[in-house]
Write a structure and sequence with these properties.
Length: about 290
């Protein structure tokens, strides 16, 4: 097996047999993954594997490098057991494939691994995008020019408006439509999650009760990202622009205001970027709706 950079870790093993005796199952089994890539005409000379992206309980991303110069990103869930309906890689990949057909800026999906015999869980593979997310602290690659930053902030809103303009009544997206009111479902779901994840006393139950009494009338259905922010888009080029929207694990068909509200609520207004009020005004202009 042509894995030239030795990765000494319980996370990445050469063969399944190498994981025998480990307390945790591996995240990557190299020989099985190499065979999967070769079968799909991507590569067989896998030479380096590196965990990239945000660490935590969300889905994992791995950079795959090959001797031929190919670079891919593999996205997979954490180790089982997994909560029901969470970390569904096949669903996440299918949503992005459907959005790509309508011109949404998503990473191209090259292969979907539904057979759990490869890694023990479903996963998918996409090309490596040579860019950067805008996180805290701000990346050094981000220009300091205020006009450039302002334009990038407006493009963040324009990209969201593109997502919300997608036709959800296509054969690829209709399976994602659920009955009932999206906003009501969100209030109920996050209220339940608070009961599971609470670590200290906060007035979340009272806030949830108030929200449940004041759920707005639904808007026409739209694709909702669910975690839309600067840190979940890939920026590249000069001047910088948004080349892809990442992390679709919470994507759904629902109320577009959820994305707008979340974007504004989590926005820290980096130096040179538009104000929250400017973001909202730009969105209203692009969508023609208050």
């Amino acid at each position: 097996f042509p894995y030239t950079t030795l990765f000494r870790s319980v996370d990445v093993v050469r063969t399944a047999a190498d994981a025998d005796g480990n307390r945790l199952p591996p995240l990557i089994v190299l020989d099985r993954l190499a065979a999967f890539l070769e079968e799909r005409g991507l590569a067989s000379d896998l030479s380096r594997v590196e965990r990239i992206g945000v660490r935590g309980g969300s889905n994992f991303s791995f950079l795959l490098e090959c001797d031929g110069g190919e670079r891919y990103v593999l996205r997979r869930p954490p180790r089982p057991p997994l909560p029901p309906s969470a970390h569904d890689m096949v669903r996440e990949a299918r949503l992005q494939l459907a959005l790509a057909k309508q011109g949404v800026r998503v990473p191209p999906i090259l292969a979907v691994g539904e057979d759990e015999d490869v890694l023990g869980v479903p996963f998918y593979v996409m090309p490596f995008l040579d860019g950067y997310p805008v996180t805290d602290p701000l990346p050094q690659a981000l220009p300091t020019d205020e006009a450039v930053r302002h334009a990038l902030g407006l493009e963040l809103v324009d990209t969201l408006a593109e997502i919300h303009a997608v036709d959800v009544h296509t054969p690829d997206l209709e399976p994602f439509i659920r009955s009932g009111d999206y906003a009501e479902r969100q209030v109920r779901r996050w209220t339940q999650l608070w009961g599971v994840n609470q670590t200290r006393e906060l007035p979340v139950p009272e806030l949830a009760r108030r929200m449940a009494l004041d759920v707005p009338e639904p808007l026409p259905l739209a694709v909702v990202h669910g975690d839309y922010r600067l840190g979940n888009v890939m920026v590249a080029g000069e001047p910088p622009g948004i080349v892809a929207v990442l992390d679709w694990e919470m994507g759904a068909i629902g109320d577009a205001r959820a994305d707008v509200g979340y974007l504004v609520a989590t926005y820290l207004e980096p130096p040179g970027f538009p104000t929250p009020a400017e973001l909202v005004a730009r969105y209203e202009l692009r969508r023609g709706r208050e």
